[in-house]
Amino acid sequence: MTFWNNKRVVVTGGGGFLGSHVVDLLEEENCLEIVVPRKTQYDLVHMKDVYRLYDDARPDIVIHLAASVGGIGANMQNPGSFFYENLMMGTQMMEVGRQCHIEKFIAMGTVCAYPKFTPVPFREEDLWNGYPEETNAPYGLAKKMLAVQSQAYRTQYNFNSIFLLPANLFGPRDNFNEQSSHVIPALIQKCIQARRTGQERILLWGTGEASREFLYVTDAAKAIILASERYAESKPLNLGNGQEIRIKDLLEIIQRLTKFKGKVDWNSEMPDGQPRRSLNISKMEENLGFSPVVSLEDGLRKTIEWYEKKVPGQFFECAVQGSSVLSTDLSL
Ligand SMILES: NC(=O)c1ccc[n+]([C@@H]2O[C@H](COP(=O)([O-])OP(=O)(O)OC[C@H]3O[C@@H](n4cnc5c(N)ncnc54)[C@H](OP(=O)(O)O)[C@@H]3O)[C@@H](O)[C@H]2O)c1
How does pLDDT run across 183-200, given as a tens digit for each residue? Predict the structure, then answer.
């Protein structure tokens, strides 16, 4: 018998990047049923759809990954909808889970919830010591409310929920849409596009001096599965690999792996986002008995291989000729 035996599991956002990897791992367990509600069937911003989902799926466990997400550009363009949609989805999913007496609710936070100037590496205790970096504050704060809700519901209703704080994720099936991608897919896409079309220079946002931490998506999925099984407190739990890297240094690795030999210009008028990001992962290691296994370089190699296969050169060159085709068709 494992934790998952005979359980009905709902994975919201299970058709997305992280969610699809979580579902892959759950399929190896003995769940009674895994339900992946898509937005077209259940728009979880609306309470009536949330009730309908619980009614249809009758879950024991809910892993709530559905979210409106994107890189700095998407956050700057959609601060209102990112705030509202993430707040409503999370709050309602947990509230109806409580009303239905489910066994456990797994809420997904984000490293964007940390204050802009948190001492590095970020410890969970520092989560409330300041306001997040402005470009992603609405998204980060909407998700952070799930930590409050989790604690409040545990105290008042003895409801079992946990709140996880993953670092920036990367890997195969990431979102490569130019308008909404995060930093790694954006850099990979720019380097490959430039190499394939013979462009000699690429232009990137910011100064390249900011730092980030990146967790390979299958390691993140494994950590979520283990946290569901082994962690039962409302205190936030970081999920990361504990390694900080400057964007400039990350770019050098990506240039080498994508074989882009041109020059890079930095547009320092555009924002860097949070100056530094790296997580203290000692609580994750202690509570889950887990450390990530995929290194940044191996993970980048796998992601690039996946992307080059998914978007072959011939297709890519056609797509580049019409940028509307490019941005639509690259939402992988
Ligand atoms: N990617 C990262 O670097 C990162 C870092 C930290 C935390 N996270 C968190 O990890 C989770 C997954 O992120 P991701 O990168 O995998 O995002 P993603 O690929 O964009 O997936 C998000 C999913 O949410 C679903 N969704 C969005 N709006 C919805 C709505 N109104 N109703 C129902 N479903 C809705 C989408 O469903 P459809 O596919 O059906 O449209 C999509 O599958 C999010 O909670 C995010 O905040 C991600």
Answer: 999 999 999 999 999 999
